[in-house]
């Protein structure tokens, strides 16, 4: 099987959104359009109709739906790529090979964690929960690493395409540790940073859900849970080694032994050849876990239509799922403020007045549309 690494998102300009039907340019028109979308009979163009739940919808979500929870998205009005042109996420190879890059990453993540912990699912996630309980949703595929879907609707099958921030994983033995536990270790190893963080908390920087206000108070939380701290002394930051590898350094596949060295406090030392912990998210340049990729594809194949929310499909792994749905003949709905990559391809699924359209599109925030849709639809279970 070929597994492609996550590439840096497509950053070219996106064409302006084409609203389908035209009435979906207003909020009430969009609500009507998506009420029809979710309740239409299975599409006659659907292939593979002998399997799956063809009257149900699979969701594909992105950072845009978490903006209302106080996280930045990437390309929205206040998106990370828009407000900070120099922003560049860390690449897997940098993280895996450079001690200095890891110090910088973990320092920023350490400061960003309490804010992420405080952030809660918003009305879009609750609407997904309600739609799921009423029988409309087969599963959710998300690019988000904030765990809001699993918090808001743990009963709905969910695939976290790019992993999750709630755990860290060892690059050598693949053991996972909860991020909350890991935060405690970072706190012990970095008392001065912990003091700084406590000060930020005291100043109330984390007390606001308003990202503008948070930025004004000197802190900016990116969607992957780190913050920008100009001129911070990252090189002083220490991080622990994997406890399992420290206890028993693993053998590599070729039989050679590894070593895990720590300082007197337990901080990982660069003389080590194993035991590096990484957030359990898929970094740029890193392969998506093959089992996750398959689960996402099965989620598409197991549903009769696809609803895309809060993503411009800039990441190839997300676009590929939409392309898969398109090729299967699935009706596709998009709720996303602003343009979407390859929109002209998807528009071909809108066959105008004479044939059945299988494309619905509005350019609005999901929290202005989906909660009303969810509350108006009847339960399918009785
Ligand atoms: Zn390990």
TrEMBL record:
List of catalytic residues: 162
Chain ranges of the Deacetylase sirtuin-type domain: 41-380
Gene3D superfamilies named among the record's database cross-references: SIR2/SIRT2 'Small Domain, TPP-binding domain
Pfam families linked to this entry: SIR2 (PF02146)
Membership in a protein family: Belongs to the sirtuin family. Class I subfamily.
Classification of source organism: Eukaryota, Fungi, Dikarya, Ascomycota, Pezizomycotina
Keywords for this protein: Metal-binding, NAD, Transferase, Zinc
Name of the protein: Sir2 family transcriptional regulator
Source organism of the structure: Aspergillus cavernicola
Residues that hold Zn(2+) according to the record: 170, 173, 242, 245
InterPro entries, per the entry: DHS-like_NAD/FAD-binding_dom (IPR029035), Sirtuin (IPR003000), Sirtuin_cat_small_dom_sf (IPR026591), Ssirtuin_cat_dom (IPR026590)
């Amino acid at each position: 099987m070929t597994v492609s690494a996550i590439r840096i998102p497509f950053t070219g300009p996106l064409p302006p959104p084409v609203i389908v039907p035209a009435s979906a340019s207003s909020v009430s028109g969009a609500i009507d359009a998506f009420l029809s979308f979710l309740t239409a009979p299975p599409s006659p163009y659907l292939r593979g109709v002998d399997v799956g739940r063809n009257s149900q919808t699979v969701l594909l979500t992105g950072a845009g739906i978490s903006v209302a929870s106080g996280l930045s998205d990437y390309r929205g009005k206040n998106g990370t790529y828009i407000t900070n042109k120099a922003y560049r996420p860390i690449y897997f190879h940098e993280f895996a090979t450079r001690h200095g890059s890891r110090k910088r990453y973990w320092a920023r993540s350490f400061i960003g964690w309490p804010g992420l912990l405080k952030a809660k699912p918003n009305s879009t996630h609750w609407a997904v929960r309600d739609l799921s309980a009423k029988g409309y949703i087969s599963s959710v595929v998300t690019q988000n690493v904030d765990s809001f879907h699993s918090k808001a609707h743990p009963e709905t099958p969910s695939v976290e395409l790019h992993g999750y921030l709630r755990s860290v994983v060892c690059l050598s033995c693949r053991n996972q540790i909860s991020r909350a536990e890991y935060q405690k270790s970072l706190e012990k190893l970095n008392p001065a940073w912990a003091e700084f963080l406590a000060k930020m908390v005291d100043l109330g920087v984390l007390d606001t859900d308003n990202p503008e206000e948070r930025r004004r108070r000197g802190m900016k939380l990116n969607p992957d849970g780190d913050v920008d701290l100009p001129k911070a002394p990252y090189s002083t930051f220490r991080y622990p080694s994997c406890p399992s590898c420290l206890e028993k350094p693993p053998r590599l596949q070729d039989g050679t032994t590894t070593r895990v060295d720590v300082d007197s406090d337990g901080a990982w030392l660069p003389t080590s050849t194993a035991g590096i912990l990484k957030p359990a998210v898929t970094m740029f340049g890193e392969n998506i876990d093959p089992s996750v990729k398959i689960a996402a594809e099965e989620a598409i194949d197991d549903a009769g239509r696809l609803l895309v929310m809060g993503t411009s499909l800039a990441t190839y792994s997300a676009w590929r799922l939409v392309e898969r749905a398109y090729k299967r003949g699935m009706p596709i709905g998009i709720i996303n403020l602003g343009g979407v990559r390859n929109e002209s391809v998807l528009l071909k699924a809108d066959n105008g007045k004479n044939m059945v359209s299988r494309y619905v599109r509005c350019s609005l925030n999901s929290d202005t549309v989906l909660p009303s849709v969810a509350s108006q639809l009847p339960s399918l279970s009785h």
